[in-house]
Every structure is written in C-alpha cells, then in structure tokens.
Amino acid sequence: MKMKSFLLxxxxxxxxxxxxxxxxxxxxxxxxxxxxxxxxxxxxxxxxFIDTPNIDQLAKDGMRFTDFYAAGxxxxxxRCAVQSGQNQVRIGITAHIPGHWRPFERVINPQTTMAxxxxxxxxxxSMKQAGYVTGYVGKWHLGRGDKFGxxxxxxxxxxxxxxxxxxxxxxxxxxxxxxxxPDQFRTDYExxxxxxxxxxxxxxxxxxxxxxxxxxxxLASKSELVDKxxxxxxxxxxxxxxxxxxxxxxxxxxxxxxxxRALDAQGLTxxxxxxxxxxxxxxNKRYDYDERVDDVVSDLTPxxxxxxxxxxGGIRVPxxxxxxxxxxxxxxxxxxxxxxxxxxxxxxxxxxxLPRNQTMDGLSLLPLLQNPLAKxxxxxxxxxxxxxxxxxxxxxxxxGDWKLIEYxxxxxxxxxxxxxxxLSESINLAGERKGKVADLKRKxxxxxxxxxxxxxxxxxxxxxxxxxxxxxxxxxxxxxSSLRKRFPSTEREL
Length: 494
Known about the structure:
alpha/beta, Alkaline Phosphatase, subunit A, 12 helices, 29% helix, 4-stranded antiparallel beta sheet, 9-stranded mixed beta sheet
C-alpha cells in the first residue's frame, strides 16, 4: 500500500510538472495599448524631455520597431483592427465612434459602423479558445459596453473604464469590479487591476490587454509630475511638449514599470511576451481648438501631420516587444508592420488557430521577432480615412519605401513621398514621378474595391463660408468651443 501511495505521488508530481511545462511552452501575452501616444514621445525613440525609464528598459530588453503603423488615424478603427485581425475598412469602423461631423464641407463623409459586430471572432475569443484566460482593462471604444463591451467579445475579466484621468472622474462600467480609491488616479487604478489579474492567473497562460485612456486629452496629471516638467521646461526654455502631457506620459511609464515588476514578483518574466504600442499618432491640438479652453499638446517633429491625418504623424507609432525566450535584447526592426498583425502573432504564440471563416489581413510578426532583418510576405500597407479631422478625407498606400496619399474630397489631390529619404514628407514627388503615382493609385483603387471601402459623396449643402464648422452628431447642433470649460490639469484644481 505504501508503494502504491508512493507511485501515485510520483505520478501526480510528474503530472503537475508536465502541466506547468505545458503552461510555460505557451507564454503569457500582455498587450499595452496607449491612447494617442506619438512616435517620438519616448526616450527610446529620441525624446530628450520626458522621462520614460521603464519603457526604455523594455526596448533595451526586447525589440524596437521603427516603421510600425497604426491601422487607423484615430482610436476606434485601430482598436477594430487589433480585435479582428482585419483592416477595419472591411467592417466599416473608419472613424472614432461616434465620429466628427462637418455638414457644410465639400463632401459628405460615409457613416461609420457604430460597434464591433458580435459575430466577429476577436483576438480575445481566439486566445480563449487556445486555452488562455483573457483579461481586458481600460478603454474599449468599440460600442456600448452593455451590448458590445469586452465581456461580450471573449474576455473573462473585462474592466471597461470610462472617464478622464483625475481621481473621481472615471469608473468601471461593471459594478462588480472593485472601485477605485477616492484619491486614486486612473493610471494607478488600471495598473492595480492588471497586477491583480497577473497574481490570480499566474498558474495558467493568460492574455491581458491594458488600454489606458492616457495620454488622450483633456490633459491632466499628478501635480508633482506637472511641477517637475514645468520646472524643466523653464530651465530649458521649451514650450512643448506641454508639461501636463509630459507628466501623463510618465504616468504611463509608471504603469509599464508596475506590470514588469508584477511579472518579476511572480517569476513570469521569461514566460511572458510584453507588447507596447499606441492606437494612432500623437496629437498637436484638439480638432476644434480654442486657446481659451485647450492647450497645444506636443510637437511631432520630424513627422508631418498628427492624429486624424494619414501623414506619418497620424499613423506612425512606437512598437516595442519583449520576450526573453524569443527575442534578442536591444534589437531594432525596420520592416513596415501594422496593428492588425498582432492578431495572428498572438494566436501563433499561443499555439492557437485562426478563425476559419474570417478574413485575416494581418501577418504574424514572429519571423521578425526571431530575425529583425527578415521580410514579411506583404506587397503593401493600406489606409482609408474618409473623414474630416485634422486633414481631409483620404486613402493611402505604402509599398516599399514609397507612399501615396489620395485625397477623397473632390479635389483629386495626390501626394507621393519616398519615406526612406523623406521621413518628414516635405517633398511631394507626384509631379515628377507620374508613373509611380499611376501605379500606386491603381493598386489603391483595387484595394478599396476589394474591401468594399465606403467613400465620401458630393455635398449638395456645400458652403465654403461654413465648411469649417464642427457639429455634434449626438445633439445635431454646432459645437461652440468657447462654451467648453477648461478641465482641471491636476488634482489640486479639483
């Protein structure tokens, strides 16, 4: 009997070890998805004003991508691309939900789909099917939470959080989730929820998305950080980035540090892939900017454009990936990549399967993570943003080092840039390279036809004197920026 008990114990121990070994084969995945973070806002991307030691260390320990793109120029389209693995144009989420409206412009923008359809198999659902426990913390912005939130889209733990950064200004939509402390900032609350998720699920593979509201406007941050950067700005005689924005970026860096330390504390560092990126390019100023109520956010130099534009400033964003068992530390990759590549990457890492009846535009990044000089089997990257924002409605294509922007506002304007030699998009070569323009324009048209892209139509109410008016879709009335109240910038102003 003693021998049988001994053998049974050996078998149970072996089984437990095998189970743990299986868990370790498939790494945990943490996807950190920042809102409106610009390509050049981090130390590891050349910023010399904002302190981002934790993110910079992530880059030192992993791989930094130089030519990574957001799938959309604003948040909801890119979020759709991440969740679906598709170019969001196929689904129709081409503007942020609910979108902006300029009723007297030259063209009428197409309506955007107002929620990620429930029949789309999300990356969360695919990871769950692969045996992962799934979690989502932060901003969703893909439809009303009660009907289309992350809990309806494959996430076991879904802490959708709405509201701006300062204490008392935000809340989780699910009343069962632990409430923030009265004096807690949103970034700290989100980090706390992630730390708890990591601790609770340390014994099984997990897939966690952290999607903060930071660094989105309205600008607000911790007073000690704002004071720090106001002092630094004065010492260096600089006006940008805005000190409050700089503080908010550092809050994000603190979030990353807390997550990395949580992994270390649970002994999960080597068995976890950490991915850090942004949903679109950085912001210079609000779309209906009024200096009485808004501040200029940041200088996006050397990139042209900003959020809401298909120039590099609107779509080129940071990407850092760390996975000690797979990625050589301190490496850099310049292969053009895009947000919908995450879906097949995560599924392959998790030894899962892609949905059979769902188009997959993304390509797995694993070949690049193993060899940064590798090339993906992709001919071109496409964008379609048929809306007014910080620029005119447009489509764009990047093939190799060439990029074409075609405006869809009835002007037939075209811009051609050689990105490798002209990162700032300062020299429009459309007049000189007509053959290249014709080739890329044809390919862009073929792609739009393939994905059934919705296009603007001529506006019978076009009024050049009123074209610049912004209207609210919710209220069907003009937006009067002068009536908006300035948000408090620190907790001292609450």
